[in-house]
Amino acid sequence: MTRVLIAGGGTGGHLMPALAVATRLQATRPDIEPVLVGALRGIEAQILPTRPFRHNLLPIEPLYRRQWWKNIRWPFIAMGLYRELGRLFDREQPAAVLGTGGYASAPSVWFAARHGIPTAIQEQNAFPGLATRLLAGRVRHVYLGMPEGRALISPGPETMVFDTGNPVAPPDSDRRGAALARFGLLGGERVLLVTGGSQGALAINRAVAEWLERGGGSGFTVLWATGRGSHADFACYHHPPRVQVFDFLDPIQDAYAVANLVVGRAGMMTGAELCAWGLPMVLVPLPTSAGGHQRHNAVALEVAGAALMVEQGPDLSARLAAAVNNLSNDPDRLTRMAQAARARGRPAAVDEIVTQFLTLLRG
């Protein structure tokens, strides 16, 4: 059995691409075993034990940007991490390594490249993360989720860069009927989906709550995923069928199947899903995202015509309400945004990534 390592995590935005590629790789080539690698302190510590892949969790910590004094521990962490990586690679003997970004992936990709093992990186964002920028010159392949990232990396002389898009599940038009039944809808409603990802987005939740308290949302059916951490604070707004409040929408594709407009953060895995479904979006970038990458994502999608960006800050509720109302009252613009989103969608991205990654094994 040929083994490959797929390293990524820390956050869901880096873990989900790793799982998507591992799932498709295993289905495409049953003779290849994908082994997942993540961080002990990342979200993968809770998620990977529930998935059908062997996995390894390493004692990795991020590089702190604001609390820089915490990085003083890194020389000691690095020594132990190097020993753990040596044991991991000796045990698994991987034929190739794919990193999907974040601090959970960089050490494995670096170790593999240093020892002559074919390596690849999948980068989700318009502004490549630190791991991608540092390692792009050492790896064989870079798979870009957004073409804007190409100008911001420095590939090595033997590095091939591919504009693949991000690996998301392709849209399923057949699920609309079941989705309408799930939410108690007839099919003619204007549906607004609000989501901040699995952890939610407190600023967006508060803005939506203020909007509803002022009488907003008239004429809409609002599907609102608050995130599990703050659901209890906003469950009082649950008045189906007009306003439906969930802690977590699973599968969220049901909401995509009925939505006309989406309000959310600007993480590119969500953005890639919305583009694949052809959904217009109002994006509120997380101000504290690493390197400001969410703002870069939102700007790229706004320039493409698929999104409208609203910066987080004072009066977010009023500005979000204005954006939603203006778009909803301009069906021609919504149609153009949907077309622009669909043009940016890459529903077959995971197939292309797996196809290119397999060439590393043949090589």
Nearest-angstrom radius of gyration? 21 Å
Categorize the overall geometry: elongated
Structural class: alpha/beta
CATH topology of the largest domain, anyone? Answer: Rossmann fold
CATH class of the largest domain: Alpha Beta
- CATH architecture grouping of the largest domain: 3-Layer(aba) Sandwich
Report helical residue fraction: 40-55%
Q: What would you call the quaternary organization?
A: single chain
The overall strand count is: 13
How much of the sequence lies in strands comes to 15-25%
Helical segment count:
14
Order of helices and strands: EHEHEHEHEHEEHEHEHEHEHEHEHHH
Low-confidence stretches: none
pLDDT averaged over residues? 91
Q: Biggest β-sheet, characterized? A: 7 strands, parallel
CATH homologous superfamily of the largest domain, by name? Glycogen Phosphorylase B
Beginning-to-end CA distance, first to last residue: 17 Å
* Domain module count: 2
* Strand adjacency order, main sheet: 3-2-1-4-5-6-7
Architecture overview:
It is a single chain. The protein folds into two domains: 2-167 and 348-362, 3-Layer(aba) Sandwich (Rossmann fold); 173-344, Rossmann fold (3-Layer(aba) Sandwich), CATH 3.40.50.2000. The chain contains 14 helices and 13 strands. It has helices spanning 12-28, 44-47, 74-92, 106-114, 130-135, 176-183, 202-213, 231-234, 253-258, 268-277, 293-303, 316-328, 331-344, 349-362, and strands spanning 2-7, 32-39, 55-58, 96-99, 119-123, 141-144, 160-163, 190-195, 220-225, 243-246, 261-264, 281-283, 307-309. A seven-stranded parallel β-sheet has the order 3-2-1-4-5-6-7, sandwiched between helices. α3 crosses α4 (106-114) and α7 packs across α12 (316-328). The mean pLDDT is 91.
